[in-house]
Specification:
By secondary structure, the chain is α/β, with parallel strands linked by helices. About 30% of the residues lie in helices and about 25% in strands. The strands form 4 sheets. The chain has a 7-stranded mixed beta sheet with strand order 13-6-5-14-15-16-17. A 6-stranded antiparallel beta sheet has the order 10-9-8-7-12-11, with helices on one face. The radius of gyration is 23 Å and the shape is globular. The termini are far apart. The protein binds S-adenosylmethionine (SAM). S-adenosylmethionine binds near residues 106 and 295.
Length: about 375
């Protein structure tokens, strides 16, 4: 037994009760050809849930039915990345929810229909031979920005694009004693990883998952201890170029890029495409002629005061007569195998506010608010 514990150090972190539950449920489910279902879920799934900590665990395997949450450490890819790493990165990005409740959700091809429509409209308003300054705000992993940039280059060879988001990195904090926390740059905590478990710390765990609950309570208590010791001041971490890790007491911090490998490669190969950190509530100094804000100015994310602040930032950032594309992909109305409709509007900056140039499948939920703006 001693040898087994050394080979599987995570066993040490589980108390006896949890270990008993684990063994019972595994034995129970493995023994039953047709596991007992309570409320639609196998018994084991009700007591515990394992995480996906390694690439090979993304494939179906003996415990795959027990595994749910991907470790955000899997967002880290090799250079050049393998197709498997990229596929896992994209899967994680689809479901990654920030501590604010805002999702990172994006995926390649998500906005390609919009790109076609918008590019045709931009040709009516701007000289294709001249430089065109475009900004894509709240771009998540920037893959849809990279795709839009490439398609725009066909019509506007001198296009320059800045893709931005508030978070371009997560921060991994690995404890010397074992276990890893995943934080947002602003300090919000998202996960605690202790293979084979990946615990979501950004929202409560189901009360049925008693093993996960017990481990989670310990992880949260340890986090509070580290905070009280002053070891979690993430704002003071200064990752200078080339610096991989920063040690603080018993914690080693490393960054995990949230930018899609293809968007990163494009930014490195073409200086006309840049990726920057920027908040949609701040005025951009780049004097863009076009700003796109997709799937961020949602009434479910922000109240009217905050949305007004964002809309004002767009108005102040845009060059004279600049164009703003704003909208939301209505995921709940997505037809099977098809793309979700987009409720969005293309608007033009006037001297005092905005005017509508075009509505997409339906108007943007913030169109009326934008039209009521008086500067
Ligand atoms: C649903 S994603 C939108 C991704 C992409 N625009 C799309 O439509 O596929 C929302 C993004 O907004 C970003 N975000 C949240 N608050 C923000 C802020 N204040 N400024 C900039 N980006 C923000 C999140 O990090 C997240 O990546």
């Amino acid at each position: 037994m001693k040898r087994e514990v050394t080979e599987f150090p995570w066993l040490k972190s589980i108390n006896r009760l949890s270990l008993l539950c684990l063994l019972c449920t595994l034995l129970f489910d493995l023994k039953c050809a047709d596991p007992l279902h309570l409320g639609g879920a196998p018994v084991s799934e009700i007591m515990l849930r394992l995480g996906i900590c390694r690439l090979d665990q993304c494939e179906s395997g003996i415990f795959s039915w027990l595994r749910r949450n991907h470790s955000y450490q899997l967002l880290r890819v090799s250079l050049p990345p393998s197709s498997r790493e990229v596929a896992v990165f994209e899967t994680i990005m689809l479901n990654l929810r920030l501590s604010t409740g805002i999702f990172r959700t994006t995926l390649p091809g998500r906005l390609e229909d919009l790109d076609r429509l918008v590019n045709a409209l931009l040709l009516e308003h701007f000289d294709p031979a001249a430089a065109l300054r475009v900004e894509d705000w709240a771009a998540s992993d920037c893959i849809t920005s990279a795709e839009w940039f490439k398609s725009l280059q066909g019509s506007f060879p001198k296009v320059q694009m800045v893709a931005s988001d508030l978070d371009l990195y997560l921060i991994e904090g690995s404890l010397r004693e074992g276990g890893t926390y995943i934080f947002e740059g602003g300090g919000g905590v998202l996960q605690y990883i202790r293979p084979p478990f990946v615990l979501d710390l950004s929202r409560p765990e189901s009360s049925y998952l008693i093993v996960n609950q017990a481990l989670r309570a310990r992880a949260v208590a340890r986090l509070e201890q580290l905070r009280a010791q002053g070891n979690l001041d993430l704002a003071s971490l200064n990752f200078r170029p080339g610096m991989e890790a920063i040690e603080r007491g018993a914690i080693t911090f490393r960054r995990i890029a949230l930018v899609h490998p293809s968007a990163q490669a494009l930014a490195q190969s073409d200086p006309a495409f840049r990726i920057e950190r920027h908040s949609v509530f701040d005025v951009s100094s780049g004097q863009p002629q076009v700003i796109r804000t997709m799937n961020i100015f949602n009434t479910s994310y922000f109240d009217v005061a905050r949305l007004t602040q964002g809309i004002t930032a767009v108005w102040k950032s845009l060059a004279s007569s600049g164009i703003w594309i704003v909208g939301r992909s209505i995921m709940e109305a997505r037809p099977p195998g098809g793309k979700p409709p987009i409720h969005g509007s293309v608007m033009r900056k006037t001297g005092v506010g905005f005017e509508v140039l075009k509505q997409l499948d339906a108007k943007s939920e913030v169109e009326d608010l934008a039209l009521s703006l008086r500067m």
